[in-house]
Amino acid sequence: AESAPVYPRVLLKLSGEALMGDQGFGLHPPTVNRIALEVKRAHERGIELCLVIGGGNIFRGLSASAQGMDRAQADYMGMLATVMNALGMQSALEGLGIHTRVQSAIPMDTVCEPYIRRRAMRHLEKGRVVIFAAGTGNPYFTTDTAATLRAMEMSCNAIFKGTSVDGIYDSDPKLNPSAQRYDRISYDEVLARNLKVMDASAIALARDNTLPIVVFSLRQEGAMTDVLYGRGRFTVVG
Ligand code: UDP
């Protein structure tokens, strides 16, 4: 029999860009399907999964406000972008036969459920994948912070941050071939060295609640399931 997973309940955080493939914008359905397949692999093992997806592939509040738009208004638009990504991922997962629910921090009853913590818990217990949309529902926050908040609310064992590299390095491995990957690194070191894992408020929130952040590559097939069982290459911030 296979050993028990190290992380039986996790929140997977994806940036919006993870869904756009080689396009410069929006959703690339084959890429969304490929990520959905990774989620399915983990789900088949009985891992309880929540998802938070960013919106940077569609709209970023900060960029729009730098160009003159009111910041709070732009942030609300960014949150709406995350709802589109959530619906796209829901569609891909349902296409693979996985039961899902989208819960939005900004109520949008016609397309998804509102965020209700106890209801989301129940969905997880029933084996549904819950996708949390619209970030925290507040401007001036990010989906990294939303992911950390929801992971704690849902008693997740860790945040899984899916990226294009297999962990955190002491310098950019795409530029420096001798860059060293950390197996483990502290929250404070991530903050002090300004390593780009998640934004600083999300790291601090995770630190204050000792929620591990696991950074791994979404590019390698099957990597997420391996990491859930403690195998393969990844970095734990903890
Ligand atoms: N956003 C927000 N509050 C939140 C989460 C997100 O205002 O709680 C807005 C913000 O404008 C942000 C946009 O939604 O730029 C998209 O989210 P994010 O930048 O976190 O997406 P990612 O970089 O992960 O794709």
From TrEMBL:
Catalytic activity: UMP + ATP = UDP + ADP
A GO MF term: UMP kinase activity
Gene3D superfamilies, sorted: Acetylglutamate kinase-like (3.40.1160.10)
Pfam families cross-referenced by the UniProt entry: AA_kinase
Principal localisation: cytoplasm
Metabolic or biological pathway, per its Swiss-Prot or TrEMBL entry: Pyrimidine metabolism; CTP biosynthesis via de novo pathway; UDP from UMP (UMPK route): step 1/1
Regulation of catalytic or functional activity: Allosterically activated by GTP. Inhibited by UTP.
Binding of UMP, residues: G55, D75, T136, G137, N138, P139, Y140, F141, T142, T143
UniProt domain Aspartate/glutamate/uridylate kinase: residue ranges: 9-217
Segments of this protein annotated with the region Involved in allosteric activation by GTP: 21-26
Gene Ontology terms: biological process: 'de novo' CTP biosynthetic process; UDP biosynthetic process
Annotated SUPFAM superfamilies: Carbamate kinase-like
InterPro entries linked to this entry: AceGlu_kinase-like_sf, Asp/Glu/Uridylate_kinase, Uridylate_kinase, Uridylate_kinase_bac
A GO term from the CC aspect: cytosol
Subcellular location: Cytoplasm
EC number per UniProt: 2.7.4.22
Membrane-crossing residue ranges in chain numbering: none
Residues reported to bind ATP: K13, L14, S15, G16, G56, R60, T163, Y169, D172
Keywords attached to this entry: Allosteric enzyme, ATP-binding, Cytoplasm, Kinase, Nucleotide-binding, Pyrimidine biosynthesis, Transferase
Assembly description: Homohexamer.
Family classification: Belongs to the UMP kinase family.
Chain's role: Catalyzes the reversible phosphorylation of UMP to UDP.
Protein name: Uridylate kinase
Source organism (scientific name): Thermohalobaculum xanthum
Lineage: Bacteria, Pseudomonadati, Pseudomonadota, Alphaproteobacteria, Rhodobacterales
The encoding gene: pyrH
